[in-house]
# Entry
Amino acid sequence: EAIFLRRHDFTDLLSGGNGWGYDFMQTPLPNAWGAGGNADAPYLEMAEEFEYVDGTSGKLDRTTIQQGLWTTDKLWANKDPRFFATIYTQDTPWKGTLLDFHKGIIKPDGTIQTTDSYQGILANGYQNVNFTCFGVLKYLDESHDVMSGQFSNSGTDWIVFRYGEVLLNFAEAAFELGKSGDALNAVNQIRTRAGIATLGAIDRDKIRHERKVELAFEGHRYWDARRWRTAVTDLSRSYSGLQYILDYNTRKYKLKVINNIDGSVQVPAFFPQHYYLPITLTRTGNNKNLVENPGYN
# Structure
């Protein structure tokens, strides 16, 4: 699977080793920062990208999930196994316990308490509940102790190129050349390995979706959106998080979708000129034949 790796060890970079700061930045509590790393909190929309094992869409009915009470087993039942290997959230097993992101507790009288504790149960979980209530599990080393305070001592290798990407690159090229059968076969090899239903037909959007899920958080998505010229649409929008509110009586959760989690002041935006880099005044000033790229004048 792994073809080209950037090797790392568990010796702190500042001490002459070849470690890096991934575990320190991404792990939930316990973490030397005291609040958990979770530097790259995935959005609810990313969690929804993972289909169910039968191949149906993973998009949640946001009206339905905000009604009644849920267990996380029911909420994420039959999800693509890659979801559980890629993202952590409420009740994800970690270091012998279950992660707790809940924010608020529903008392028997129906009111919600958001501070202190109720009957010995904290109103808020011990994880950082101020983001999306999701974190990146991929690449994390659960056995790694990040309590020493050393920043750059993660020993997980960074995958630069692996066979899964080979298949996805092949599928994309084959489809654009009109070889749909070859593209379908390549994508279905990935889905079979993942433990999810194979596709009966293929199109450009299905290939791009598979790439988004399979290569999630491996450094491809931004550049894919740029080269596909979809970044203006894909990246210029606000995104959502999920709040888990613990019900004291049942220990289930009331769910609340938090909209505009990073766009309440200004919606994130990717402009057409961002498909290119500026040539800059220095270069155009030194060469009168150079013309600045559109949008940078």
